[in-house]
Amino acid sequence: MTAEAEVPTHGTVLVVDDAPETLRWLCATLEAEAYRVLVARSGEEALDRLEYAVPDAILLDAVMPGLSGFETCRRIKANPAWSHVPVIFMTGLAETESIVQGFDSGGVDYVVKPVRAEEVLARLGAHVRNARVARMARDAVDVGGIGVLLIDTRGRIAWRSPHAEAWLRDRFAGADAIPPDDWVAEVLALGPGEASSWIAGDGTQMVARSLGAAGVDETMLLLQRREASSAAESRLESAALTPRETEVLSWVAKGKTNRDIAEILGMSPRTVNKHLEHVFEKLGVETRAAAAALASRALR
Predict the structure, then answer these.
(1) What is the pTM of this model?
(2) Which domains does the chain have, with CATH numbers?
(3) Residue 87: which H helix or E strand, with range?
């Protein structure tokens, strides 16, 4: 006896609604279109379902007893493991205020009841395809060793790749890995190409580089881990030393005194000292030894 071949599906959809007749109709409609369907009758039950299985999309009633659809969506988007799942609201609330609330809580679309089969299938299919493309892009980015972070104008994380999530958790201890407001303000203030860095728990350097606007109200950041030598190179690059300052620093790294450097470069020891003051300030170090150590790692 041979095993029955598995029937391909368009994906898995979680339907959340407290009305039994709506659930029955939606389940029949989606299953007829080769979707695998999960069911929840409340916001609380939906969150429980997500602990065991993460669907490709969620059809969510906005008005339910207990936890509302809007609050349920906010909780879904606050969980990094679920935040990528597109949420489509279904509700009889057609007022602009309610529609805005749906999008503000994290929904990607809004269908007004009574729901029409053709409309919900078209919207659902588009969002499932887009989510899959985004997930493939996210995985491809992480394979390249780069994390991606999107922050909206309100300072909220709109999206983060797995690498970015892990590195933020290392930087800002805790399961949620939510950066504090001052760090968010710092990176949002960066111009395109500018970077902010920190030392990770394993001693390597993490760099967050701004790519500027990624949409109407989002800023994209690339996060990258650098080994010690790369970190030193990056630090020298961001310091923007002048050619003469770089020459002076390279001789310091070779153990030369100010008098030696003055003779080699044809300048006075006082001028050498002045260059070093600027170098220390730009590198954020206080001693000659620290500057020499940094230069040795970067220039070797």
Answers:
(1) 0.50
(2) 11-137 (3.40.50.2300), 144-226 (3.30.450.20), 239-299 (1.10.10.10)
(3) strand 87-91
